[in-house]
Design brief:
alpha+beta, 4-stranded antiparallel sheet, 4 helices
Length: 237
């Protein structure tokens, strides 16, 4: 998805208005301005203000509701969403608790594990999920909205994505081949990682200093793609 969105920078599509928040200037290798990265759509998307002043949305996330189970009294709803923030980051499976006050995030899991939600008496919610390693769990709370949340890893494991490494490599190679600066590609990948929720603070932030927020493995694959293009197809200077 990200690779497609990147092309919009040159096609002039998906315009977006600027928003408050971090603003990062990106320059080309010759020192000219490539654009300014900033949040848009209330922080739910990333946009680039080009030198001509136009704004192009270059990153966004899509949320697909997979399950909704209401509490016995009907006042609470437990929902499962799959969040897709682009080609360089895995799907994020999120369980939220919703009521009249809004939503409360209960857990963020890497990939597309099996998840089943079961309400019990006494305001207790059981989240049955695939068996996963601790590093595949990015957020987890045991209580919310006066509800006790119990996580039960009793469902079969799900095979990890086979395509993420190649997707990150291809993103780096095709983005660089299209003339996009290294820093732009790395910061955009970092934003996608942060926005998905599959993020650790030690990886930095898209708007901060390197490494810009992407996970170490993903960042390495993006760099491999960038270097592949620069080594194979660009004249040495």
């Amino acid at each position: 998805m990200i690779a497609i969105l990147l092309l919009l920078v040159f096609l002039g599509g998906a315009s977006s208005s600027a928003a408050d928040g971090p603003r990062v200037r990106i320059v080309n290798s010759d020192g000219t301005l490539f654009g300014v990265l900033h949040l848009s759509k209330g922080g739910e998307a990333l946009s680039l203000t080009q030198p001509n002043g136009s704004n192009v949305q270059v990153g966004r996330c899509a949320n697909e509701e997979k399950m909704k189970v209401s509490s016995p009294d009907g006042t609470l709803h437990a929902l499962v969403f799959e969040r897709n923030c682009g080609a360089t980051v895995d799907f994020a499976s999120r369980v939220v608790l919703a009521d009249a006050r809004g939503q409360k995030l209960l857990v963020v899991l890497e990939g597309r594990p099996q998840i089943s939600l079961v309400w019990k008496e006494g305001r207790r919610l059981e989240v049955h999920q695939s068996k996963m390693s601790a590093d595949q769990v990015y957020h987890q709370v045991a209580q919310a909205r006066e509800v006790t949340v119990v996580f039960v890893p009793d469902l079969r494991p799900v095979e990890a994505s086979k395509y993420l490494d190649f997707a990150s490599f291809n993103y780096g190679a095709t983005g660089r081949a299209a003339g996009m600066p290294r820093e732009f590609l790395l910061r955009l990948a970092g934003w996608s990682q942060e926005a998905s929720g599959l993020h650790r603070s030690e990886w930095g932030s898209w708007a901060g200093p390197a490494p810009y927020g992407d996970d170490p493995r993903g960042r390495a694959k993006v760099m491999d793609g960038i270097q592949y293009d620069e080594t194979m197809y660009r004249p040495k200077k």
